[in-house]
Specification:
- By secondary structure, the protein is α+β, with helices and mostly antiparallel strands.
- It has 16 helices and 20 strands.
- The strands form five sheets. An eight-stranded antiparallel beta sheet has the order 14-11-13-12-16-17-15-18. Strands 4-5-9-7-8 form a five-stranded antiparallel beta sheet.
- Helix 2 (about 20-35) runs antiparallel to helix 4 and helix 13 (about 380-390) packs antiparallel against helix 14 (about 440-460).
- The chain binds flavin-adenine dinucleotide.
- Flavin-adenine dinucleotide binds next to strand 2, helix 6 and strand 9.
């Protein structure tokens, strides 16, 4: 349904846009969108990466899905405006930016969260933070989504556009696999309900779709009863082979006897490195310990930590000690090197919040973050360890080096996310933090070079791998990234956003460059356009090729009218 143009009471007030294209058309359209708040525009040109800065023409705060639809429809009528939904700007390569276009700040979108009929799911706006979802669902209903990210200051729409992984993923699937249905606004202004059975192609396109196919305005997320407590444990390994063998055993156990959460990280056998060394291992802050108590002086330069969690309500009734003991007995970690704590469920899921506070205080939250996330097949992880952890990264990265296994069968293949071929693959996340103090730009460049070197290594060695939260500059690289699914990705783009309006910061498609659509079908969007055509108006425009119907269409003239668009 075309939302914006069915408001008959207002339609009489509208005059329609005259100009056929070029900058005057864009200007008129931007005028119709309202006036941005100066401070906000600067925010929209920044992201957590701190490396890319692209200034939009407008930064708008939609509060309803109709507002989103209006912005998209107006952009579709312009000569060249693009639109990026911005979650919380926590990507690291400008993916939520739109140079000279429109950025939509999704954080103000409503309506507020509500329990879905039946009580086993929650409806959340696309701009809700995961921390808000946790707080609302646990406080009001003692329920919670089963799958999380480590850090909760990310939006639902943002992580569903990528994947959303953490230690629960091996068991419950990624966040994209725990969505019941969504409302998605496409560039024809339609607000489409989609699920695995309704508009399923759009549903799966959007999940992991890098913001390319529509704007998620509402997601219905599956819920499970929230446990009260978590047994949280970290155990240390002296070599990757043993670590990996145990980790893979743990993530392939039957659900009934498995941990609820399995993660891991590599760290330097160095007690003086606060970010990548021994100090990152103890769970409780301020734990005094001496690494020499755990390992011989001759131990390797890189060690590994497995992080495990078991949920429970009542320690005795839920046999948490016995269940944990049964699993731990099989593992071959360094027996003396273990740390554990019993913490509340919300505190466990919020465990990165104190890390954020500390990084903000140290100034490393604001410096550049040239992060690299890669999914690497289990068959390549030992070689990766030998060549990357133990050679390239021996100096540390100023932050965590996550490495833990996931299972491909927990991801629905119809989704857009690109994954390695093998059933078990590792997330390797190099979460680099750069010290403030003048040399940030040079350090960021050096780190980015190191990331490139690592990816070159993966390619040269022929690893079965995919970059997670990718960013490439050439169509060839994107085609290689999606592999055999590239054709499907391109077809979906043509179907839902044929003018390449959405998420230009991903750098996959461009409004000024025709889509690489040689093999694709004509866009279906044309069928939606007559609703915005006023045949009584004799001024005609040339539509972009991808939207061109058989004959020329007349488009209505619109004047700037602040009251018309409800964008704050
Ligand atoms: P943004 O960065 O603002 O947007 C990301 C992309 O999604 C953009 O292309 C944007 O246009 C699009 N988008 C945003 N909202 C919507 C919407 N409503 N509809 C359609 N498209 C939309 N990832 C994990 O999987 N697991 C983790 O544990 C994890 N931890 C992280 C910790 C930190 C400190 C940081 C900075 C990132 C982490 N990430 C993690 C990465 C995170 O998933 C991505 O950064 C992701 O981009 C989410 O951030 P965001 O909500 O701010 O979205």
């Amino acid at each position: 349904m075309l939302i914006a143009y069915l408001d008959h009471q207002r339609q009489d007030q509208l005059q329609w846009l005259v100009s056929a294209g070029g900058s005057s058309s864009d200007e008129a359209i931007l005028c119709a969108l309202g006036v941005e708040e100066a401070g906000d525009v600067a925010l929209s040109a920044r992201d957590f990466g701190g490396v890319v800065s692209l200034w939009p023409a407008r930064f708008l705060r939609p509060s309803t899905a109709d507002d989103v639809a209006r912005a998209l429809l107006l952009a579709a009528r312009s000569a060249g405006l693009t639109v990026a939904a911005r979650g919380n700007g926590h990507c690291v390569g400008g993916q939520a930016m739109a140079a000279g276009g429109i950025v939509l700040d999704m954080r103000a979108l409503g309506p507020p969260m509500s329990l879905a009929p039946g009580g086993a799911a929650v409806d959340v706006p696309g701009g809700a933070l995961w921390s808000e979802v946790l707080e609302w669902t646990v406080r009001n209903h003692r329920m919670a989504p089963p799958s999380w990210t480590d850090y909760l200051g990310l939006t639902v729409g943002g992580t569903l556009s990528n994947g959303g992984v953490s230690g629960q993923c091996f068991r419950y699937g990624p966040q994209v696999n725990n969505v019941v249905e969504m409302d998605v606004v496409t560039t024809d202004g339609d607000r489409r309900l989609c699920s695995a059975s309704i508009n399923s192609d759009l549903f799966f396109a959007v999940l992991g779709g890098l913001g390319q196919f529509g704007v998620i305005t509402r997601a219905r997320l599956a819920l499970l009863p929230a446990p009260k407590m978590v047994r949280w444990r970290r155990v240390v390994y002296a070599d990757l082979e043993t670590f990996a063998s145990d980790a893979e055993w743990l993530v392939t156990q039957p659900d009934a006897s498995a941990f609820n959460y399995v993660e891991g990280f590599a760290f330097l056998n160095d007690a003086s490195d606060p970010a990548s060394g021994w100090n990152s291992v103890p769970i409780l802050p301020g734990s005094a310990f001496d690494p020499a108590d755990f390992l011989a002086a001759a131990a390797a330069s890189v060690l590994y930590c497995l992080e495990l969690a078991l949920y429970y309500d009542d320690r005795v009734a839920d046999r948490v000690d016995e269940r944990e003991e049964e699993l731990l007995r099989r593992l071959r970690y360094v027996r003396a090197a273990e740390f554990s704590a019993d913490v509340g469920y919300v505190a466990f899921l919020s465990r990165v919040a104190p890390v954020e506070a500390e990084a903000r205080a140290r100034g490393t939250w604001a410096t550049p973050h040239p992060w690299l996330n890669v999914f690497i097949s289990a068959s390549n992880i030992v070689d990766f360890d030998r060549n990357v952890f133990k050679r390239v990264l021996l100096g540390g990265i100023g932050g965590p080096m996550l490495v833990y296994p996931l299972r491909r069968s927990r991801w629905d293949e119809r989704m857009s996310v690109a994954l390695p071929e093998s059933e078990v693959f590792y997330l390797v996340a190099l979460l680099r933090f750069i010290a403030p103090g003048g040399g940030e730009a040079a350090a960021a460049t050096a780190a980015a070079e190191q990331n490139k070197e690592i990816l070159r290594h993966c390619r040269t060695k022929g690893y079965d791998f995919k970059v997670y939260i990718p960013r490439y500059d050439s169509e060839g690289d994107w085609a290689a990234h999606f592999g055999r699914d590239w054709g499907r990705f391109v077809e979906r783009k043509q179907r839902y956003d044929p003018m390449a309006i959405l998420a230009p910061g991903q750098n996959i498609f461009s409004r000024t460059r025709p889509l690489a659509l040689a093999a694709s079908q004509p866009p279906e969007i044309i069928s939606a356009l007559p609703a915005i055509v006023d045949d009584s108006n004799d001024r005609s425009i040339e539509l972009p090729k991808t939207l061109r119907p058989p004959t020329k269409m007349s488009l209505p003239t619109m004047i700037c009218n602040e009251g018309w668009i409800r964008l704050r």
